[in-house]
Design a protein that fits this description.
Number of domains: 1
Strand order of the largest sheet: 1-2
Distance between the termini: 34 Å
Structural class: mainly alpha
Shape: elongated
Strand content: under 5%
Radius of gyration: 43 Å
Number of helices: 13
Largest sheet: 2 strands, parallel
Length: 494
């Protein structure tokens, strides 16, 4: 995608128009266009086609070089793609390291003794939103009380949402109006600053006209001024920065090949480690199955309670399904009814989706989801009141907590609005101070550009003096130098 850039949208113009409205920017741009048209597009039906007169009028040099950096090409060094290559290799290296870590962890898990093994944990599902809790209660226990309380909580939630939306919108409208007032005051203050900049540029132009007029007139009138007093002032068009050598395409190719080889090698290593991990996992399952067989083989009436816990743990470790459990437990030497009861218990446990949660919210160690509710919301007190409307403390608690929540939110909203407005005020004042400080910078910039535009013309004037050009023709050149100072770039826009 290309970026459109015009002479009227340079960095200085963008900076000057930063705080203007769209209509002000349009007027400013049209004014600039008008200045350019008035200065450079002129009708002249009586003008004669004479290049010699044109050269004098426009102060055109017979020989002038282009800036040395005009055709400079910005070559991006090959190191610019080095981060991309490093990132690709780093990602694949991380995957390879992760695969190696998995393999190593599997090996540790295979050899560690049971008493040192990390215990399984229950996945606790917390219901922290009051609306979710109300819906859960209606689904889990659909009674008149739970449905009434749930509908009440949902209604209160909708009312709270509408109220929040209204006050948020009111805050935004109020802040926007205050922002408009702030922008109006800032624009009023910027008028004086822009006037200082405008007056300074005009004064610079008048000063340069006076200086150059006296300088050129002193020579043309036969004064004692040294002819080449200002001749030879150079305006730098090139930078002193040393040009970087052009990079060779072979470096890009080698870097790409190296990156590709690294990615392929690390990917192969990761796959190799994962394959070894699968083999180790299979060995782990085989070991657990062997332990299950040993327990079943050696189990008797005196050890069956201990064996039940061991078998339960072993089946969980290999994530045994119904068929696996029945296949192994059918060989138990217990009472037939007790064996069948234990099989059904293990099968039911393998199929159960949730498990009970103990008092410490930790579950019973089964690695399956468990639900619990922990709400911290003003609507929870409304729910409790609806469940028991006769409890006056529930009522007072609801109104107290809800009122405090509303006051807290309103205070926060008002505080945020006031803070936002004050920040905008301070930012506007900072912008005004910055623009005021930039006046001197803008004037120096204007003066520097004016010198850069006029000095080559003055140099050409003295070159023609050296070449013996008649003073009548030199006067034409001097007149046009002064005209260029007055009407030439950089322009002063009203």
């Amino acid at each position: 995608m290309t970026i459109s850039t015009t002479p009227l949208h340079d960095a200085e113009t963008i900076r000057q128009q930063r705080n203007l409205t769209k209509s002000q920017k349009r007027t400013n741009t049209e004014t600039r266009e008008g200045v350019l048209v008035n200065n450079f597009i002129k009708d002249c039906p009586d003008c004669k086609v004479n290049l010699d007169d044109t050269c004098d009028t426009l102060v055109i040099s017979n020989y002038s070089k282009m800036p040395s950096r005009l055709y400079e090409k910005d070559i991006t060094p090959e190191k610019s793609i080095l981060p991309i290559s490093a990132l690709s290799v780093g990602v694949m290296g991380t995957i390879a390291l992760l695969a190696a870590f998995v393999k190593h962890n599997t090996k540790i898990n295979l050899k560690i003794v049971d008493e040192k093994r990390l215990p399984p944990t229950t996945r606790n599902v917390a219901i922290n939103e009051e609306t979710h809790q109300a819906l859960y209660q209606m689904i889990q226990s659909p009674t008149l009380k739970t449905i009434r309380a749930g509908v009440g909580v949902l209604t209160l939630t909708a009312m709270g949402f509408i109220g929040k939306t209204f006050f948020d919108g009111f805050k935004d409208v109020w802040v926007k109006k205050r922002e408009a007032d702030i922008q109006k005051n800032m624009q009023e203050k910027l008028i004086d600053i822009e006037t200082q900049s405008f007056a300074g540029k005009i004064q610079i132009t008048r000063n340069m006209l006076s200086e150059k007029a006296n300088e050129l007139n002193d020579y043309l009138s036969g004064g004692k001024r040294k002819i080449l007093a200002n001749f030879g002032k150079k305006i730098p068009f090139t930078a002193n920065k040393k040009q970087e050598e052009k990079s060779s395409n072979i470096n890009y190719f080698l870097l790409g090949v190296t990156t590709l080889a690294s990615i392929v090698g690390l990917g192969f290593l990761a796959l190799k480690n994962l394959s070894k991990s699968n083999k180790l996992l299979s060995e782990f399952v085989e070991k657990k199955e062997s332990l299950i067989k040993d327990v079943i083989k050696n189990s008797n009436n005196s050890t069956k309670e201990k064996d039940k816990n061991l078998l339960d743990a072993y089946f969980q470790s290999i994530d045994a399904n119904e068929n696996t459990i029945k296949e192994y437990l059918k060989d138990l030497k217990w009472d037939k009814a007790e064996v069948e009861d234990f099989i059904q218990k293990m099968v039911k446990k393998s199929k159960t989706s949730t498990t009970a949660v103990n008092a410490t919210i930790g579950g019973d160690g089964t690695p399956k989801p468990a639900f619990y509710s922990h709400v911290n919301d003003y609507r929870a007190f409304f729910y409790n009141w609806l469940l028991d409307p006769n409890n006056k403390q529930f009522k007072q608690l609801f109104f107290g907590i809800t009122g405090l929540t509303a006051i807290g939110y309103g205070g926060k909203l008002a505080g945020d609005a006031i803070k936002e407005v004050q920040v905008k005020k301070m930012n506007a004042q900072t912008e005004v101070d910055l623009q005021n400080r930039l006046v001197s910078t803008e004037l120096r910039n204007f003066k520097s550009k004016k010198d850069a535009a006029i000095q080559p013309l003055v140099d050409e004037f003295y070159k023609q003096v050296q070449n013996g050009k008649p003073k009548e023709e030199l006067k034409v050149m001097a007149d046009n130098i002064l005209l260029e100072i007055k009407n030439g770039p950089p322009f002063v826009y009203s």
